[in-house]
Amino acid sequence: MTTISVTDLHDRVTRIFTGAGLTPQNAASVATVIVNGERDHCKSHGIYRIEGCLRTVQAGLAVPDAQPELHDSGKAVIEVEAHGGFANPAFDHAKDALVARAKETGIAALVIRDCLHFSALWHEVELLAAEGLASLSMCPSYAFVAPAGGTEPLLGTNPMAFGYPRQGENPYVYDFATSVAARGEIELHRRAGTPLPKGWAVDKDGNPTTDPEAALDGAMLPFGGHKGSAISTMIELMAGAMLGERMSKEALEFTGANGTLLPRHGALVIAMDPAVFAARSGRDPIDEGERLLSAIGAQGARLPSQRRFEAREKSLAEGITLTDAEVAQLDRFEAQGLAALD
């Protein structure tokens, strides 16, 4: 095992992506969300994701030097064209405009067009919570999930995140796939040779399976049965159809891949200013929220992301621990660039 500081790991991952042709700004943005995943002990969205990003660049399905382009008509909806680049630099490019519009009008939406998405969504809603905004972030993915009662993959894992600001505390944040688990979790089980929990997936014939290989060849399942299926469908409609961007089935057809390459589609971020919503009430929306969140904690219940925030604090103080195999892979990527994939 090797321990490396958050800053040093960020520098290493940034060099890997600049070596693959990303601009320094794009490389640093992508590296930030990957390293933040490791920092917060979210292994399924940490350095494990580097290979998929590089393979997508190598396949010519990512534009590594894409320059995000902001389109702001002065209305509630702001758009940023990723031009086939990664979603993270596009969000970073448009974030200040989104924050300003939300504080001006109370609510604003950011449409990210033609982007490659692989990262957890909590990164975005945390940044908006730091600006005093509540927010929702969502996107389709690849059609790997069967709708409740079905057997054929049609929906994506379709993640959704929500953030709400707190005074002097980490924000209230949840981020989850609408499938029972993220596809990356199944891939990690496959690599480790461990069975899946029951209820995660069905095989290609629609039979329940705990075999990661059979699950990857079959279909994942939505969480909560028909309820998770309905939420996943909502995300397909809001972050796909409503934006005029690819939905999960189209994204899979576009790449012609089996999930080893990143999906290319759109994303939607909705930002809301609690101060504007509560202005006429005479009540402080942050204090009101804190009353609820404190009461949850007083019962001994753990808030979403609490473990992640605890892991973050430890990583910032003590560094991030990587296995020898993970360090060796970083060494190969940094030394050989895209050639390391061969």
Question: What does this protein structure show overall?
Answer:
This protein is α+β, with helices and mostly antiparallel strands and 342 residues long. The protein has two domains: 1-65 and 305-342, Hypothetical Oxidoreductase Yiak, Chain: A, domain 1 (Orthogonal Bundle), CATH 1.10.1530.10; 68-179 and 222-304, Malate/L-lactate/L-sulpholactate dehydrogenase, NADPH binding domain (Ribosomal Protein S8, Chain: A, domain 1, 2-Layer Sandwich), CATH 3.30.1370.60. 44% of the residues lie in helices and 16% in strands. It has helices at residues 6-19, 24-39, 48-58, 87-105, 122-129, 183-192, 212-217, 226-241, 248-255, 274-277, 285-298, 306-318, 324-336; strands at 2-4, 69-72, 77-81, 107-116, 134-138, 160-164, 172-176, 201-202, 208-209, 219-220, 264-272, 320-322. The strands form three sheets. The chain has a seven-stranded mixed beta sheet with strand order 2-3-4-11-5-6-7, sandwiched between helices. A three-stranded antiparallel beta sheet has the order 9-8-10. The protein has a two-stranded antiparallel ribbon with strand order 1-12. It is globular and about 60 Å long. The two termini are 26 Å apart. It holds the Pfam family Ldh_2.
Topology record:
Blueprint: E1 2-4, H1 6-19, H2 24-39, H3 48-58, E2 69-72, E3 77-81, H4 87-105, E4 107-116, H5 122-129, E5 134-138, E6 160-164, E7 172-176, H6 183-192, E8 201-202, E9 208-209, H7 212-217, E10 219-220, H8 226-241, H9 248-255, E11 264-272, H10 274-277, H11 285-298, H12 306-318, E12 320-322, H13 324-336
Helix pairs in contact: 1-2, 1-13
